[in-house]
Amino acid sequence: MTLVDLANPTRFLTLADRVLPWLMASAAILLTAGLYLSASAPDDYQQGATVKIMFVHVPNAWLSMSVWGVMSIAALGTLVWRHPLADVAAKAAAPIGAAFTFLALVTGSLWGRPMWGTYWEWDARLTSVLVLFLMYLGLIALWRAVEDPSRAARAAAILTLVGAINLPIIKFSVDWWNTLHQSASVLRTGGPSMDRSFLIPLLIMAAAFSLLFVTLHLAAMRNEILRRRVRSLQMMQASRITLSNDMDAGSRGQGAHKNGAA
């Protein structure tokens, strides 16, 4: 099945119904294994047990940016390729991305308190991630404020592409400015600098959260397609009722005219 085939909502719904149970099971297994390995990981010689917050914080931070990247591709699909499900994908991803970003901010604050002595500091990384969270909320509000799905899709696509400028700022903020965050220790040119006892649980947790995102995204897209179908049926029914009322009113008017003429 190609992307062209998936442009058909019915075929997409069929695929989603088939793969969602497998995705849910895979995500649950990976998440269980990741949590076990995270809890079994040794304490850090400097950070102690608080280092284990990393296993939740880092995957959520990665996904907060990755989901916006997915939405940016969907925005191009809406504006350039006119893919029928592109706006559905973008709308479904926004609340999930906002949740990941919120979790990244909360777990980062909890991790920062014992390490930095404060829950929050207005450095480049923290501020840019907060801006990302606010942009997610803005997109969600935009989708709800505009009733016409096509108009909302175009406006949201433009806002998404403009907001994508923030992604490299988040990624390279630790290199461009002096921040409390350390430089990259996993995704780096020379390979990961992290010990395997921390790296393996972190990667498994990242894979688990990624599968969780795919699962939630497909389910949300399926629900959005069904919601739009229900809305279309309601509008068709309302149009028929209006047309029927107009016809009845016209018939009564003609009858009254005939009676008056008689």
Q: Can you walk through the features of this model?
A:
There is one protein chain. This protein is an all-alpha fold. It has one domain (9-42, 49-179, 199-243). 80% of the residues lie in helices and 0% in strands. The protein contains eight helices and no strands. It has helices at residues 3-6, 9-40, 54-81, 86-116, 124-145, 149-163, 166-176, 196-261. Helix 3 packs across helix 6 and helix 4 (86-116) packs antiparallel against helix 5. The protein is elongated and about 90 Å long. The model has no long low-confidence stretch (mean pLDDT 87).
Structural class: mainly alpha
The helix count comes to: 8
Beta-strand residue fraction: under 5%
Overall geometry: elongated
Unreliable parts? none
Distance between the termini: 69 Å
Give the proportion of residues in helices.
Answer: over 70%
Rounded Rg? 25 Å
Q: Give the biggest beta sheet.
A: none
